[in-house]
Amino acid sequence: xxxxxxxPALARAVLASARSAxxxxxxxxxxxxxxxxxxxxxxxxxxxVVDRGFVxxxxxxxxxxxxxxxxxxxxxxxxxxxxxxxxxxxAMKASGAGLAVAITGIAGPGGGSAAKPVGLVHLxxxxxxxxxxxxERRYDPALGRAGIRRAATRDALLMLLDLAEQAGFAAA
Length: 172
Hints:
The protein is of the alpha/beta class. The protein has helices at residues 7-21, 35-41, 59-66, 70-76, 81-95, 144-171, and strands at 25-29, 50-55, 99-105, 120-127, 133-138.
């Protein structure tokens, strides 16, 4: 299947698939600061599918709002596959939504290190029907902060679309 190219078209596809599967959506965003939620709610009629979004930019917010353990962040760092998964699971638990996606990363231009460079982003998505899906991206720092955030938003929407479509097939 051909995937939509623009964020609005992709958001419309996510909403339609989730609606068809009878699922609602929650987001947990750090480096994107709510861009996934903005893409979804930018579509008229999204309120029947979109439940809520958590912008958890600080480590404290990740713990307080999503239940991400402080010990996990201390052990692996906020920008990690494990924390992204905990954020997605926490968003689903806190909201009761059927789908959740989480993003944590280093959009730059500063803040990176040799181990975790600018452009490193971890995404996780989960549905009530299955395990957490995780991906790691290493976006080109030349994209700049805005470009990295847009690319991560697109990948998060694609993850939601995949899960919504899988749920739709499972229900059929």
